[in-house]
Design goal:
This protein is mainly alpha-helical and 374 residues long. The protein has one domain: Growth Hormone, Chain: A (Up-down Bundle), CATH 1.20.1250.20. The protein has 15 helices and no strands.
């Protein structure tokens, strides 16, 4: 099962590597303005917010089934194909929503299944997740080369292929946990009412909202200051490259310093990255700021997944990861790019990035209070 989990991470994050860095540029190629790009990002996040916990609940309810993960990934591949061919605001909105609902279910199910393979040593999760980061690097660079030579529409070739491969590999992944399944959506309620998880999710929401406000417009900012599309891919690949050693080293770092301290360091690195993109204007230096983002992402993601897995109610492992995923990549991406898109026309991208940095500082303080209380 460990080999299948690694293969699924490779396939799924190849799809993300084609999608995340370039989809804002694709939206612009359709003639959309910055505020519309931000609203589409918010719509995608809202749909993912709904999809992630529901798919997680389905995976817990039917844990021994081989069909839940392939259904999510296969549905995402079909929605991606639709997004690549439709034109007109209503059809684009529909395709974006369907893609986000389906894609939102893949990561929490993968994370829950991967965590089962590492048993009680949850810090080892990073050594499985790192395969996704490595795949992201290759896919983002390859997609950037494709786009520069053949056009922005080529991102959908890699995206659809990665999602289809995830669906195929997903047939071999099912739960080995024999904890009785919870009734219907009871797991979502238990997670949200948890005294350990509830406050943590609120702090994570603030931190990731600040980070996604920057990420949602980072590719556009690079192009704005003169970077070619290939450099956009290189920037995102750099972030993933920094993730790899930190994810591999997370078990040792967690044993030495504690996963909670690593979470705080990750949140602090998000703030440093925000400062960098505000003050720097050279394309190369702005590109290098993604190294800070990579460190922040690795520590915050692995630390967050580990924290949630340790405090998840019995029988709700995938549900808890779905709620975390919906918070960090769903609700946070509604607030971040959505509000950022509204502020950017008035403040400019550097000004909006500065506001995001201040929100990140508040998030670090909130996380410190949560972890101290726990």
């Amino acid at each position: 099962m460990t080999v299948r989990a690694r293969a699924a991470y490779v396939a799924f994050f190849a799809a993300i590597g084609a999608f995340a860095p370039y989809i804002p540029i694709y939206y612009q190629s359709l003639g959309l303005r910055l505020d519309a790009v931000g609203l589409l990002g918010a719509l995608s996040a809202a749909a993912g917010l709904v999809g992630a916990p529901l798919w997680g609940a389905a995976a817990d309810r039917f844990g021994t089934s081989r069909l839940v993960l392939p259904a999510a990934a296969g549905g995402a591949a079909l929605a991606a194909a639709m997004l690549g061919v439709v034109r007109g605001p209503l059809l684009v909105v529909l395709a974006v929503g369907l893609l986000a609902v389906a894609m939102g279910g893949v990561a929490p199910i993968l994370d829950a299944r991967a965590l089962e393979t590492v048993a009680d040593d949850r810090n080892r999760y990073g050594r499985l997740r790192v395969w996704g980061s490595a795949s992201f690097i290759v896919a983002s660079l390859f997609t950037g080369w494709l786009i520069e030579s053949r056009g922005i529409g080529l991102l959908f070739v890699v995206l659809i292929s990665g999602l289809a491969a995830t669906a195929v590999v997903g047939f071999g992944l099912r739960s080995r946990d024999r904890v009785p399944s919870l009734r219907r959506l009871e797991g979502i309620s238990l997670v949200l009412r948890s005294p350990a998880l509830g406050p943590f999710l609120l702090a994570a929401l603030l931190i990731w909202s600040a980070a996604t406000a920057i990420n949602g417009f980072f590719s556009i900012r690079l192009v704005e200051i003169g970077a070619p599309e290939s450099v956009v891919g290189a920037a995102w690949a750099l972030g993933a490259l920094v993730e790899i050693p930190l994810m591999v080293a997370f078990p040792a770092l967690g044993a030495r310093f504690g996963a909670e301290r690593l979470l705080l360091v990750g949140a602090g690195l998000f703030v440093l990255r925000a400062i960098a993109v505000v003050l720097l204007h050279d394309p190369l230096l702005v590109t290098l700021s993604m190294g800070l983002h990579g460190g922040a992402f690795a520590l915050s993601l692995v630390g967050g997944v580990t924290y949630v897995s340790r405090h998840a109610p019995a029988g709700a492992a995938a549900t808890a990861q779905g709620v975390l995923n919906g918070t960090t990549f769903g609700l946070a991406t509604i607030l971040g790019p959505g509000l950022g898109g509204l502020m950017a026309p008035t403040l400019g991208l550097p000004g909006m990035f500065g506001v995001a940095g201040l929100a990140g500082v508040a998030g670090v303080g909130a996380l410190w209070l949560v972890l101290r209380a726990g």
